[in-house]
Design goal:
Length: about 500
């Protein structure tokens, strides 16, 4: 399991001991990163050792009040779009810290490569470091800033874009604008794609060529550069065989499903990670995907072919529904005491998302025929009893099944009525596909969707909380220790 990314031994190699003070401490007696082997090992830590998925998912409209006993403060605060007050795995503060730790590792690797004379033999490591740095900054700006809008990006608060290892105690950082962050990300993606390759011992634990292109498509989708999305996804074609095979997945034994989902052997999985996380245990939380609301997302009435979805729920906990996506590996630090650290298999990038990005780009380029063909194929592979000879989609089918609602989807660009119906269809497909994985939140921000979260007591609504368009709570508040160290807070 990639030795859980060799995290424990290698964190001391980067110029960060914790990041609890936001890039503020320099460890003594640093290990010198002075060989290609050490650089490769260091890059194992260039991916966040925490996950955003629980945070983002709980803020989305995939989560409801199951009315179970409420014991998780983080869960309640995320559900209500409040700043989390806790520290620990799957919290906002920890993902922020872990992301900057990963960035520090990438930066240290880039410096070490330069100090070795930047030989061509280290180009793959250089490409991986650049892409890893871009990825962490992208996830940070997506969570802690306003949505990307070219009309306001030059003044919207982004996040600090860090390109050098920290060289001073209590280094002070300022927030770059969203435009600056996106410009830096694009530079790193463009440069990283020149060098990255697939010649890793375990390529899906690293930024390989396909993972890099999938990440680029995610970035350019947010930026609204449809031609770039189509360029990077061209090799997928209109009927890729490398998206998830739900028939095969569903046939796996129940105890194996979560392991199968994130295995590197799955063709759809392009970048896999094992962060310190208890995401698999989320079903015990009060605010989760609840059984009495499951059909709103997975019911047959949401299937344009009028059939059942192959994406089925496999476990229930009181009133909650679990789709087995997260395999937890528990590493014991003391077997006798039964204590240790949980690590959870997560798919950071997949062909499923990559293909949906491609379909959306077709729509926005007014290539409706191509989008219809590809959307039919994608939905068909997720539909029980789909008949390719009989179950066809037309433009009119999409328009009728996904009617336009005024001011529902309001991205920074204009949508024609036909585009609006197709974008809604794709967003719903993405919502369904990535339940528990948090991607729905980024569509909510990108399309400025309104979300309503109700809290119940004894079956009665006691709090009606609505995330309106352009609500300031769409940008997470800067973690307290970072703001205490001079990082400007988001307005509230």
């Amino acid at each position: 399991m990639k030795n859980i990314k060799i995290t424990f031994a290698l964190l001391v190699l980067i110029s960060m001991s914790s990041c609890d003070e936001f890039l503020s401490e320099i460890p003594d007696n640093r290990t010198q990163i002075d060989t290609p082997e050490k650089i490769s090992e260091l890059l194992v830590t260039a991916y966040p050792n925490r996950t955003y998925m629980v945070i983002a998912e709980t803020m989305s409209d995939n989560v409801f009040d199951s009315q179970m006993e409420d014991s998780n403060i983080d869960n309640r605060q995320s559900f209500n779009w409040e700043m989390q007050s806790q520290f620990g795995v799957d919290t906002e503060a920890d993902f922020w810290n872990a992301s900057y730790e990963a960035i520090a590792a990438a930066n240290q690797a880039l410096v070490a490569i330069e100090e070795l004379g930047s030989p061509a033999s280290l180009n793959p490591q250089k490409g991986e470091a650049l892409l890893a740095r871009a990825y962490s900054h992208f996830m940070l700006v997506q969570l802690w800033s306003n949505r990307y809008n070219p009309a306001t990006a030059a003044t919207d608060l982004g996040v600090p874009y860090v390109t050098k290892p920290e060289g001073a105690l209590l280094q002070q950082y300022k927030r770059n604008t969203v435009k600056e962050v996106f410009d830096f990300i694009e530079q790193d993606i463009t440069e990283g794609l020149k060098y990255v390759n697939n010649e890793y011992k375990e390529p899906k634990y690293h930024f390989n060529i396909d993972a890099a292109k999938a990440f680029a498509s995610r970035f350019y989708l947010v930026k609204g550069d449809w031609d770039k999305v189509l360029e990077y996804s061209e090799a997928l074609g209109s009927k890729p065989t490398t998206i998830r095979d739900y028939v095969a997945f569903n046939a796996a034994p129940s105890a194996q499903k979560s392991l199968e989902f994130s295995k590197v052997e799955q063709p759809t999985n392009l970048l896999v990670d094992y962060p310190n996380s208890i995401a698999r245990r989320g079903y015990v939380n009060r605010f989760y995907l609840s059984a009495n609301r499951e059909d709103e997302i997975l019911g047959f009435e949401t299937n344009i072919f009028g059939k059942s979805w192959l994406i089925f729920t496999s476990s229930f906990y009181e009133n909650n529904v679990l789709i087995p996506k997260f395999y937890e590996y528990f590493k014991y630090t003391n077997v006798t005491a039964g204590i240790g650290e949980p690590y959870t298999g997560t798919v950071l990038l997949s062909n499923d998302e990559f293909f949906l990005n491609r379909i959306e780009a077709h729509v926005m380029n007014n290539q409706i025929a191509e989008a219809t063909e590809e959307l039919e194929y994608f939905l068909g592979t997720r539909t029980s009893g789909y008949n390719a000879a009989a179950d066809h989609l037309t433009e009119q089918d999409i328009v009728d099944f996904y009617p336009v609602i005024a001011d529902e989807f309001t991205p920074f660009y204009t949508l024609t009525p036909v585009q609006a119906s197709y974008i809604k269809a794709i967003a719903e497909a993405r919502r369904r596909e990535f339940i528990h994985e948090g991607l729905r939140w980024f569509d909510i921000k990108r399309f400025n969707l309104v979300v309503e979260h109700n809290t119940y007591e004894f079956g009665q609504v006691v709090r009606n909380n609505v995330l309106v368009k352009d609500d300031k709570r769409r940008a997470l508040q800067i973690p307290l220790r970072a703001s205490d160290n001079g990082i400007e807070k988001n307005p509230r």
